[in-house]
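Lab notebook, bench 4. The sequencing result for the construct came back, and we need a structural model before the next group meeting so we can plan mutations. Quick request posted to the team channel:

Model the 3D structure of this chain.
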Amino acid sequence: MVEPLLKVSGLEAWYGESHILHGIDFEIGRGELVTLLGRNGAGKTTTLRSIMGIVGKRKGSVTFEGRETVGQPSNQIARRGIAYCPEERGIFSSLNVEENLLLPPIVKPGGMTLAEIYKLFPNLEERKRSQGTKLSGGEQQMLAIGRILRTGASLLLFDEPTEGLAPVIVQRIGDIIRTLKERGFTILLVEQNFHFAATVADRHYVVENGRVIDTVDKASVEQSLGKLQAYLGV
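Done. Here's the predicted structure in token form:
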């Protein structure tokens, strides 16, 4: 049995007194793309933030490349090779596109060069001197994704990358995510849009009330549509 790249076991998390995660369990193999599906408030974003160590309190186990990360500060976790692209994107308004791309430090060898990022996102090269927050929503999402690709991280955490975007841009984001998977990145994707998630993922974990309650692999999606729609309320 190959050791998973990321293994989450009995993960609990709190914001202040609010107990959000109640024992999350799942794993991701190297090179896989898996999604966390669930309704709003299920605990999906908190799971990503807990993996990065940016919640108020967490307990349980999160191993990355076989080594425990619970107990480590978030900057050390990032330097191990995990990168987080938050739903709010976090574009720095005082920086132009290229400055935003160059801001995160390189934590490990093997990250993409600026030229490779511009090849993946031609729009960003055309607008590299523009203020980051003056871009369209789709371009800001591309910038948020592009910014973490230089770091050398091998595990990418994406939180709702298609939220609020036009269908043509959603399709483009899907193409980009598939390209990243082909390049060997391991991806954990939080998605509200199941129809989008089904086009890119190897496996889906369904989250409800801070726990993983079901797992559906790519081959079983069609047979499982009814129960997935019931879980997601669609």
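Residues 130 and 229 are 41 Å apart (CA to CA).
Will bring this to the meeting.
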